Amino acid sequence: DAGSKSYMWVYRTGEFYRDTPIVLYDYQKTRHHDHPKEFLQGFNGIAACDGFSGYKALAKEMPGFAIAECWAHARRKFADAVKAKKRPDRKDSLSADALKMIAAICHADKQLKELDPQERQVRRDKEVRPLVDAFFAWVHKTDEDKTVYMSEATRDGIRSCINQEPYLRVFLTDGEVPIDNNRAEGTIRGFTIGRKNWMMIDTVSGAKASAVIYSLAETAKLNGLNPYDYFVHLLTKQKIFQSLLS
């Protein structure tokens, strides 16, 4: 019904994919993990994603499928904890320490961005992995130390990192895998901004049509095309238009 809550899923090629990048939007009524399971049937590889528990279920159910969780999401709970503290205390908190270590990890990995995957993998082992190991050693030690006082928000951040540790480490195993899923987050942002303007899509067919149009427009932009000119080209070339309708 109009006004009911539903979801737009987004899939895209990875950050280090150098050929023809693709974005696909997929409208679904729910956030159940069966939707990406159906969409990703036959896919073997690693998906960079946020901490949604449904992705972990997929990794257990689909042979050859693995997930790499996002370090930008891992830092959010610590950032929220720092913001919640009174300003003079912000620099001296455990969450601030966590943010500094995560920033060092992300900075070190960013320096390897322009390398080919094989070289990036080698350099990650030498330069990034020790920082990740040190961070998780600190996380576990802090969590186990009963004499350390921390806010509930900071404890949530530490416990979350402990629970996600195997998935946060996956990027270290493959030079093709990014350290975060910021590209996907950025891709969905245009849709969420548009949603504020049109308020709602009140039919399923309209939502599916929007998914198709957004997929075409965003993929065109990623490939250096002007979306307006691209759509004019498609819609004024009769053979192309007929193939789209079929």
Keywords, please?
246 residues, mainly alpha, two-stranded antiparallel sheet, two-stranded parallel ribbon, 4 strands, globular
Number of strands: 4
Lateral arrangement of strands in the main beta sheet: 1-2
What level of helicity do the residues show? 55-70%
Shape: globular
User: What's the multimeric state?
Assistant: single chain
Fold and architecture overview:
By secondary structure, this protein is mainly alpha-helical. It contains eleven helices and four strands; from the N terminus they run ββαβαβααααααααα. It has helices at 34-39, 53-61, 71-74, 76-84, 94-110, 117-144, 152-168, 182-198, 204-222, 227-236, 238-245, and strands at 7-12, 23-28, 45-49, 65-69. It has a two-stranded antiparallel sheet with strand order 1-2. Strands 3-4 form a two-stranded parallel sheet. Strand 3, helix 2 (53-61) and strand 4 (65-69) form a beta-alpha-beta unit. Helix 4 packs across helix 5 (94-110), helix 5 runs antiparallel to helix 6 (117-144) and helix 9 (204-222) packs across helix 10. The longest helix is centred in the middle third of the chain and has 28 residues, at 117-144. It starts with 6 loop residues before the first strand and ends with a helix.
